[in-house]
Please model this.
Amino acid sequence: MKFFLDSAKINEIDYAYNTFGIDGLTTNPRHIMESGKTFINAVTDIAKWVKDNKLEGVDRFPVSVEINPYIEDTEEMIRAAEEIAKISENFVIKIPCIESGIAAARRLEQEGIRTNVTLVFSAAQAILPAKNNSLFVSPFIGWKEANGEDCRKYISDIVEIYKNYGYYGKTQIICAAVRTGRQVVDCAVAGADIVTAGLAVFKDVMNHAYTTQGMGIFRNAWDNTAKE
Ligand code: E4P
Model:
């Protein structure tokens, strides 16, 4: 399973790459805003970080960058995506899962610009991006579960549909807005390709109260071991 960091902050990206070995990055307009930079500065700095770390290539370290969310016209979406894609070969363009977005993603993939169809909230929505060869599809987990839904069937339905029709692995499933360790496990058990989450989630997932307790037990034993 691959782990992507969901952030546009260079200090977080650097930390998550060097500590956890994350496999890629996702951003969205909220993360860009939280970086405190303009859109262009935020994505240019990410492109520079990728180069400085010798991670060039969409297969090595994909970075999803979302187009202006106000754009709803297919041609305008394509133009916006083309501009962003010029900045780095690692950029995968996030397009919302609406009718004009599906058309834009389809055309962009035909042009060789890789896409991530985002804001997916049903298994039905996940089918067309795969038929049209998007590199990624992003079903949101945390937003649905925050509203009381259990996402296990949602994720496993998408995996099953992709397996039924040969899309599995070709259009990779990024479980997005993952907030908890249990959600990470649900995604992994279902067979999702990727989980994307904020840095705090990765830090949480690494920890367990029994691990801390066990460290204390073993330290105590170490201290009380015969010295000679
Ligand atoms: C995924 O690609 C999105 O960037 C992300 O997970 C959206 O949700 P969040 O910003 O609420 O975490």
